[in-house]
Design goal:
The protein has 10 helices and 10 strands. The chain is of the alpha/beta class and 285 residues long. A hairpin with a 5-residue loop joins strand 8 and strand 9. It is globular.
Length: 285
């Protein structure tokens, strides 16, 4: 039996948080994480580009060449970038002159990252539109659509844009269909969906080929992240739907961190959890 899907983890999950929360860029340990991921048997790491100290992020500096070297030496690929920066600086949440300044900043930083992604060979950037960057009004949706459509058209190539949104599935599909650029799709997050109360089968079978990547986590309905299999996420319905649409892309572990100091054991357990569902529903027999 062959597992025909790439399994990776969100960056920082093998680094002690030290009060930095669930998700952060591990400046002091990012290279070592690649070596640890290789030992665990992960195929990839999803790279984080956050707002704090972003000028020292290796994807920002030196055309990302150190990142490319580390990935090449360890055999752990980087296929996607999580643009967490946008959760802190969504231009459509500002007003007046400040909004103009943040808009220009958003555009400058995003174009720089896209350029370095091409240098390194990374094909997907994920833009979170949840929590502080959630689109709450039609005006915000229209403004973001116009912004990203222009960025994508000005930067032609093979890079795809995966939007992580909290919209109901039908509404999300219709929103994606409004983009004239077919490189704009969805990043699906099993935890965020279970926290809202959406049905994963309905979401997956509606969004179908628009789904570029999947984050695996579990959340309590209207609550926080918990260990995989202990929350409200229905993984049976999720993987049944993925089987139906013949999903072929990556799975990224983004679940609850677990006990400090046990990061490696936690990632191993999460990897095994996902492998079980892939083997049951998606493997080539």
């Amino acid at each position: 039996m062959k597992l025909n899907h790439s399994i990776g983890m969100m960056q920082g999950r093998l680094t002690h948080p030290r009060g930095r929360g669930i998700q952060f860029f591990p400046f002091e340990n990012w290279e070592n994480e690649f070596m640890q991921a290789a030992e665990i048997g992960l195929d990839e790491i999803e790279f984080i580009f956050d707002y704090d100290n972003y000028q020292n992020n290796p994807l920002w500096k030196d055309n990302g060449q150190r990142l490319a070297e580390v990935a090449r030496n360890t055999g752990v690929k980087v296929k996607a970038v999580c643009f967490d920066y946008f959760m802190r600086r969504p231009f459509f949440k500002y007003q007046g002159k400040e909004k103009e300044d943040v808009y220009a900043e958003n555009e400058t930083i995003l174009k720089h990252i896209l350029g370095n992604m091409r240098q390194v060979g990374i094909g997907l950037i994920e833009i979170p539109l949840v929590d502080g960057s959630s689109m709450k009004t039609e005006n915000e949706k229209n403004e973001f659509l116009e912004f990203l459509q222009r960025i994508a058209n000005d930067n032609p190539g093979d890079i795809k844009y995966g939007l992580e949104a909290d919209l109901p599935p039908d509404e999300f599909l219709h929103y994606l269909e409004r983009f004239q650029n077919r490189h704009i799709g969805a990043n699906y997050d099993s935890g965020n969906s279970s926290g809202i109360g959406y049905d994963p089968y309905e979401e997956i079978t509606i969004l179908k080929d628009f789904i570029y990547n999947i984050h695996i986590k579990d959340r309590i309905y209207q609550g926080g992240s918990v260990e995989l299999g202990t929350g409200s996420a229905d993984f049976e319905r999720l993987f049944t739907a993925l089987q139906q649409i013949r999903y072929k892309n990556s799975f990224i572990l983004q679940a609850a961190r677990g006990q400090d100091g046990h990061e490696t054991e936690n990632i191993r357990m999460q990897k095994s959890f996902v492998e079980g569902y892939i083997a049951k529903y998606l493997s080539i027999k």
